[in-house]
Amino acid sequence: MSITLTINGERRDVDAEPGTPLLWVLRDELDMTGTKFGCGVAACGACTVHIDGQPTRSCMTFVEDAAETEITTIEGINGKVAEAVQQSWRDLDVVQCGYCQSGQIMSAIGLLSETPNPTDADIDAYMSGNACRCATYQRIRAAIHDAAGKLEA
Predict the structure, then answer these.
(1) Which residue, 22, 13, 34, 129, is CA-closest to 76?
(2) How open is the CA angle 112-115-119, to the nearest 5 degrees?
(3) Is the separation of the CB atoms in 150 and 86 below 8 Å?
(4) Per-residue confidence at 84, pLDDT binned at 50, 70, 90?
(5) Average pLDDT for residues 139-149, to the nearest whole number?
(6) What pLDDT does residue 121 have?
């Protein structure tokens, strides 16, 4: 089945069976490997993309449900919030192994887009669906606070 997706501002035609997770179309058909497979049941957050500006687990989003939406992957993030988050991630040396970080960053951008000055409780609640096997949660929280400060400046 041919489906047209809008990914990172570009219309892309893909051939995929109905019920195929968007994650596999991104990775296998479009070679956009920044979005990671973690668990396949939307529990770890590694596959997070933005659909119409909202962080969404691509492993549980069927490709046909993503048609007629704006999909943003880690490869296509831009803007003031994304730049602040990426800079804070670098400044605070958040990444350890890095596997979960694209999903963490996509969720952090979603959080700061909705809540520009989050509390620790806001961060913990919003980011709770993102697992980090290296346990960099304290650095992630600090980086989100740092990015919020950059956005206020």
Answers:
(1) 34
(2) 100
(3) no
(4) very high
(5) 98
(6) 98
Q: Are 60 and 27 found together in one domain?
A: yes
Q: What is the mean pLDDT of residues 124-132?
A: 96
Contacts of 108 (CB under 8 A, 6+ apart): 85, 127, 140, 143, 144, 147
User: Is the predicted pLDDT of residue 134 greater than 90, yes or no?
Assistant: yes
- Identify which of 131, 87, 91 has the alpha carbon closest to the alpha carbon of residue 109: 87
Instruction: Tell me the per-residue pLDDT of 39-64, one tens digit each, with 9 for 90 and over.
Output: 999 999 999 999 999 999 999 999 99
Final residue belonging to a domain, choices 75, 106, 138: 75
Tokens 């913990």 appear where?
124
Number of domains in the chain: 2
Q: Which residue in this structure is represented by tokens 């089945």?
A: 1
Do 88 and 144 meet the contact criterion of CB atoms below 8 Å apart? yes
Question: Can you give the CATH number for the domain in which 134 is found?
Answer: 1.10.150.120
Residue ranges making up the domain that contains 29: 2-75
Residue 83 is predicted with a pLDDT of: 98
Task: Using CB atoms within 10 Å of the CB of residue 140, give its burial: 0 to 12 exposed, 13 to 18 middle, 19+ buried.
Answer: buried
